[in-house]
From TrEMBL:
This is Peptide deformylase. CDD domains: Pep_deformylase. Binds 1 Fe(2+) ion. The gene is pdf2. It comes from Endozoicomonas montiporae CL-33. HAMAP family: Pep_deformylase.
Length: 202
């Protein structure tokens, strides 16, 4: 398929978002069609003000993601670390830490909501770049979170499916009023952790 830079982001409920995507062959990565689709995927991410996007979110059923925080998208995550733009094709986690952390996650496919989600604090991820060259990275903190979130999309998982308590799923507007939340609600650390920051405790 040819992906349009004007493609809409699929919203939770669409069947493609719940499917595990197939591996991409190395020969396919270097084709003009695949390269054009990567560029289109990046444009969909930027146009949607996302810090990451997985191909199936743009109705492109392959194991590819685009990540990166631009000046525009930083407004959504003002306390997040800088993450350069990069493509990951066939990414997989080859190692993850036993220690975990929490943050308020959001998703272009789940508009208007945020969830307090626990994930491994650090990971080692391997895959291919847009040129079909193998790449590997040790990621920590918010960058590790972003990669795990996007990789979940390739396996048919959206972050609300990782929220372990319904009180940890809130309207996005509520995050702007954390100072007004009930004491220690929904947890002491969830109450005081701003968007893009990491908490080592629930």
């Amino acid at each position: 398929m040819k992906l349009s830079p004007e493609a809409d982001v699929l919203i939770m409920g669409h069947p493609l978002l719940f499917q595990e995507q197939s591996q991409v062959t190395l020969d396919e990565i270097t084709t003009r069609k695949f390269q054009d689709n990567l560029d289109a995927l990046r444009q969909v991410q930027i146009r949607s003000n996302g810090i990451g996007i997985a191909a199936p979110q743009a109705e492109w059923p392959v194991r590819a993601i685009s990540v990166g925080i631009s000046d525009e998208s930083r407004a959504r995550y003002p306390d997040a670390e800088y993450i350069p733009f990069n493509f990951w094709i066939n990414p997989q986690i080859i190692e993850s830490s036993s220690d975990t952390c929490w943050t308020w996650e959001a998703c272009l496919s789940v508009p208007g909501m945020r969830g307090w989600v626990e994930r491994p604090a650090s990971i080692t991820v391997a895959g291919y770049d847009r040129h079909g060259e193998r790449q590997e990275a040790e990621l920590t903190n918010f960058h590790a979170r972003l990669m795990q979130h996007e990789l979940d999309h390739l396996n048919g998982i959206l972050y609300p499916m990782r929220v372990d308590d319904k009180t940890m799923l809130i309207p996005n507007d509520a995050i702007c009023h954390q100072d007004d939340w009930a004491e220690d609600w929904p947890t002491p650390n969830a109450k005081i952790t701003p968007i893009g920051a990491i908490s080592r405790e629930r």
